[in-house]
What does this fold into?
Amino acid sequence: MTPDSFSDGGRWFDTSAAVKHGLELVAQGADLVDVGGESTRPGATRVDEAEELRRVIPVVRGLASEGVVVSVDTMRARVAEQSLAAGAALVNDVSGGLADPAMIPVVAATGAPFVVMHWRGFLQGGNVQGAYEDVVAEVVDELRARVEAVLAGGIAPDRVVVDPGLGFSKEAEHDLALLAHLDRLRALGHPLLVAASRKRFLGRVLAGPQGAPPPARERDAATAAVSALAAQAGAWAVRVHEVHASADAVRVARAVEGARAERSARGARGEHGAEGTR
It folds into this structure.
């Protein structure tokens, strides 16, 4: 619900169009629909609270009234509180509760699940604070500290989801390293959300050393590849713009996982195919 998001800003700015699009996403296979009224792309200017509420609440209410499971993407406690009252089921805060000190008490009081993303500050003026000696170790340590603060604030352990914050204060090589080590993030002991859809690092991968990155809307196949990898690594969810390809990718990953598990079970039972009896 923004005019300035990096890939689809303005396309769903009208409330009725946004609700219709949310229903289309569910028809394509989305399990929940994430609604946000403030762009968090590098350099984006923050909107005020009243404008964010004006954008978000009618869409949350409209989707929830249709039985859609809604996540609200906000850094403001009041927006989270009113969205939950309007029918949202989950709060997705890219600051992990750091941007608004009232956020954690609000979420704790409602008992809603809370997404804690790795965050090093607002991105006005560019990709800030992106220096790492060991990005995987540092992101895991910083996320662990943030989760501990969230738990200390009263949010139950089984209501916490973690997100490595791909693209937030990170360069392409950092994002790729984190994707290569999702097991380290899962070891934090909470469901893992991977949000890679259409992001800049995918443009860099597709462009190669000399080429220009393709536009954001031409990165959906690459996004689906990440979705398959994330599913294989045991992620709880992927956050995407185009649902169908990623839903298919996750189904394939799950089918392969099931075949692997079945083969292992057969081996444990002492069953062998022809190759095992020659």
Summary: The mean pLDDT is 90. The two ends are 63 Å apart (CA to CA). The first strand starts at residue 33 and ends at 36. Residues 104 and 149 are 9 Å apart (CA to CA).
